[in-house]
Specification:
The protein contains 15 helices and no strands. The protein is an all-alpha fold and 315 residues long. It folds into two domains: 118 residues, TerB-like, CATH 1.10.3680; 186 residues, no CATH class. The longest helix is centred in the C-terminal third of the chain and has 32 residues. It is globular and about 55 Å long.
């Protein structure tokens, strides 16, 4: 696929934003999250303006689709829209109708449409590891256990940073399920069996909206030119994707560290303390990213894209 120009970047991002509102809810929290993403990505993609155009209905799906020219980019736009709809769980009826309309407007055939959804659906519905008997909270975590959790958090952060460097859309979709599994494992290590709803609520308290995080990952990859890399061009993409890796590495690191403190403390942290701790851990994660970037890049080189779903299942 040829590198994506600015107009096509904006069109693909507009399609992704329209997909974010396809659930029909259009809640204030979601609107605020999209504005946050726009501010985070800055002016390079003119993301803030794109968000406003979508919120105020100054653009349309037809206009965005018209600007997406090549068959490869049209498939990518559809894959990313599926990822947006599945970011916070399997899509609902409104999102399914949106994707059907999008696929038709993009001129995609049925096998392409179905194929794009298979892996995304599996990631969205992948269960958390089998829970054991209901356990009570652990009174105190021994130092060895804390060290093991720190190691697990770091490994998960490196893996998600590596996924951020890969140009395939399925790699982007895998990051959130891995973060949720990390939180689940940390909770379980402290005697708590959390379900997906509880984990989503904790992430929302942190200020990490699932849909917003996915859109930010997409925006960073578009800006870094990763989606335009041809097969075999991974080595060149690693340098340009360094900023994206910092986002996923640091975010995963902060989520894991806050979860460790939250569960170790008996789940009594206030929302204000959770958010403040997340901000502190995010800053620490951004600092650590430079140190671990070589490991992130090496991990990216060894990941088998065809086995991304299997990778998520086994971690």
């Amino acid at each position: 696929m040829e590198p994506i120009d600015t107009q096509e970047q904006q069109a693909v991002m507009t399609i992704a934003l329209l997909a974010a509102f396809a659930d029909g809810r259009n809640e204030d929290q979601e609107r605020a999250e999209l504005r946050r993403v726009g501010e985070a990505l800055g002016s390079s993609l003119n993301m803030a303006a794109l968000v406003q155009d979508v919120l105020l209905k100054r653009t349309s799906l037809a206009t965005a689709v018209e600007a997406v020219k090549s068959p490869e980019l049209r498939r990518l736009a559809y894959e990313l829209a599926v990822g947006v709809c599945d970011a916070d769980g399997l899509r609902n009826e409104s999102e399914t109708r949106f994707l059907a309309d999008l696929g038709q407007r993009l001129g995609l055939d049925q096998p392409t449409i179905v194929g794009a959804a298979v892996d995304a659906d599996e990631l969205a519905t992948m269960p958390l590891p089998a829970a054991g008997p209901e356990a009570g909270p652990v009174v105190a975590a021994v130092p060895a256990a804390a060290a093991e959790l720190d190691k697990a958090i770091l490994q998960a952060s490196i893996l998600n940073g590596a996924l951020e460097l890969l140009p395939q859309s399925i790699a982007t979709m895998a990051i959130i399920p891995l973060q949720m599994k990390l939180v689940y494992k940390i909770g379980r290590a402290h005697g708590y069996e959390a379900d997906k709803t509880q984990i989503k609520d904790l992430l929302a308290t942190l200020g990490v909206g699932l849909t917003g995080q996915y859109l930010e990952q997409v925006g960073r990859k578009l800006l870094g030119g990763l989606f335009g890399k041809v097969a075999g061009g991974l080595a060149g993409s690693l340098a340009s994707g360094a900023t994206g890796a910092m986002f996923s590495f640091a975010t995963t690191y902060a989520i894991g560290q806050v979860a460790r403190r939250y569960y170790a403390g008996g789940r009594v942290m206030s929302a204000e303390l959770i958010q403040r701790t997340f901000s502190e851990m995010l800053a620490q994660g951004k600092t650590l990213q430079a140190e671990y970037l070589p490991q992130i890049q090496q991990r990216a080189r060894t990941l088998d894209v065809a086995k991304i779903v299997q990778t998520v299942r086994s971690n």
